[in-house]
Amino acid sequence: MPRPRRSNLSRQSRNARRIRNIANERTEEEQEIDRKERRVSMARLRAVYHKNDDGTTDDEELITVLEVLKENKNFEKKRNARIVLYVEKAVLNYTEQHSRLSRKAYESVAADRLPKPCSKSDPDYNDCSLKFLRKFQSQLLNGVRELNIPSFNPYHLPVYVINRTINDAASVSAVITDARIWGFDTMEIKKCFLLFRFDHDSLSGEGQVYFPKARVSFEYDVTATLFGPTPLTDSGYCKGDLSDFTVNAEFSYKPFEKLGVKYFTLDKAKVSAELGGAHVKLTSKKAENQGIADFVSNFINEDPKRTFNTVYPILKESGESMARLMVEQILSVIPADELIPE
């Protein structure tokens, strides 16, 4: 008599048991390291992708989970590689089922809610693109839930990590959480000049945006050396008001294909900025550190441009990273032929 076939549920149960058994082989120290890495990984994911209103996630997020797992230093161990193998299978199955969702979602909302992109053949393409971006800006303020594009009023960044040494006198190591940025509603797109390189099927250009006023708030945990050899360590809350803030950007895109659909991804991005004025308020979580927080706040407020220029390399690197994050969230859901039609 032939042996009865086991159900898929039984296979899934066996796989779950294997993962549990693999996990149980680890020492308590290894498990604690993994827990810390997992918290950092999920924080990074939340900084890039967010869940839909119904609690589901998209295929890009699952793929990013896999990429983060592969970055873990313990990944080379065979048992972790085996765990990731199950994740790879889950990603593949999910992607096969939902690969067309973003394109269908785009087509379902583009006609009614999004401005029509400019055609490559438009003789005044750059002028047309500038008008398109200004119209698209208003749509971004409340986000586009169907396309998984977050709200930009304010823009929310759950977590961001800074670890940078400028020179012997200035270094910053910080974890920024629950960051919110206001000002996109009054942002002015001053210019957008695009250059096509049809021979490489790519796109490059430059742009400038101006913020008459912008406001930021976030929670921080920082160790910094800015004013002397002794590092300052503190955790607390920061609120800042910026004025006459100009951002210049040079960028290039490159195409990539995802399951038969071509998209653009940001290849290179260089950002520079100029600050007119600023006022900052730091509130320490520890009463005994409030004196230090007040000193730093007053130092910044006495001459915001001086501080801005001192930490500019850090701000430039962080700005480029955040700009890439914001742009990629939009590019990842709009097919290339819809973004730049013939």
Would you kindly provide a written description of the structure presented here, covering whatever features stand out?
This protein has 342 residues and is an alpha+beta fold. It folds into two domains: 8-98; 113-339, Bactericidal permeability-increasing protein, domain 1, CATH 3.15.10. The protein is 42% helix and 32% strand. Strands 1, 2, 3, 4, 5 and 6 form a six-stranded antiparallel sheet that branches. Strand 4 and strand 5 form a beta hairpin. Helix 7 crosses helix 8 (304-310). The protein is elongated and about 60 Å long. The relative contact order is 0.10. The model is unreliable at 40-66 and 72-101 (pLDDT under 50).
| Domain count | 2
User: What is the total tally of β strands?
Assistant: 6
Residue share in helix: 40-55%
Shape: elongated
Q: What structural class is derived from the secondary structure elements?
A: alpha+beta
Distance between the termini: 64 Å
Number of helices: 10
CATH class (first level) name of the largest domain: Alpha Beta
Order of helices and strands: HHHHHHEEEEEEHHHH
Radius of gyration, in angstroms, nearest whole number: 24 Å
Major sheet: 6 strands, antiparallel
CATH superfamily of the largest domain: TULIP domain
Q: Summarize model confidence as the mean pLDDT.
A: 71
Amount of beta strand: 25-35%
> What CATH architecture of the largest domain would you give?
Super Roll
Could you please say which CATH topology of the largest domain applies here?
A: Bactericidal permeability-increasing protein, domain 1
**Uncertain ranges:** 40-66, 72-101
